[in-house]
Amino acid sequence: MAPDPDTEGEHDPVVVELYTSQGCSSCPPADALLKELTDRDDVIALALHVDYWDYLGWKDPFGKPEFSARQKSYAIAAGERTVYTPQMIIAGREALIGPQEAALDTAIARESDAHPEVDLKITGEGDHYEIALSPVDKLETPAMVQLVRYKPSATVDILRGENAGRTVTYKNIVTSLTGIAEWDGRAPVTLSVDLDGDAPAVVIVQESRPSKNGPLPGPILAAGQLD
User: Fold this and answer.
1) Strands across the sheet with 216-226, in order?
2) In the chain, where are the structural domains located?
3) What is the pLDDT of residues 82-111, one digit of tens each?
4) Alpha carbons 18 and 36: distance in angstroms, whole number
5) 14-226: CATH homologous superfamily?
6) Residue 140: which of 221, 36, 38, 48 has the closest Cα?
7) Of 88, 92, 94, 126, which has the highest C-beta tally within 10 A?
8) Per UniProt, what is one Pfam family of this protein (predicted)?
9) Is the pTM of this model over 0.90?
């Protein structure tokens, strides 16, 4: 899966979120596809392990209820009633069920070609960073600024459940996703971020859509690696 040379480097990387579980027999091919994406400079590939398949006999040690809740929020925003694994969400806009490599490449290329809505600049190093945000055009909807920490790689021997007997290597395993600021998207702002530990970090600026049950995740407007 090679990046398009005409668009590489012109835009922020495209965020691809994989919702997966060690307890799901359909997930290993999607986990392998995400593993390929981690080698691309034009993509930020993140694996969010859900916990709703833990009852099948194997508790996913990376699964967290907040990741299940995020996936369900995407479904609600899209008017869907059901969530699935494996599912890939591209730039917060498009959902793919299963490892659809051709459709995924098309979606990434489409997002790479899209007109940027937010200018994101990250400066700093070590444990302190400055995140400067400026709207290209004033946003109509506020945005959430989120910090993602992840584990680059882990190999797991799955002993029970639907994948019993498999040894799977997972990449870019999200360990936390926290909101660090709300931004109105109208005036430039600079945020300070202090990091604990040496886990890699990503900042995501994402449209926040109001609903009666709280904000729902919308399109990802900008993203960048803190390194």
Assistant:
1) 94-97, 87-90, 14-20, 43-49, 167-183, 143-157, 201-209, 216-226
2) 14-226
3) 999 999 999 999 999 988 999 999 999 999
4) 13
5) Immunoglobulins (2.60.40.10)
6) 221
7) 88
8) DUF1223
9) yes
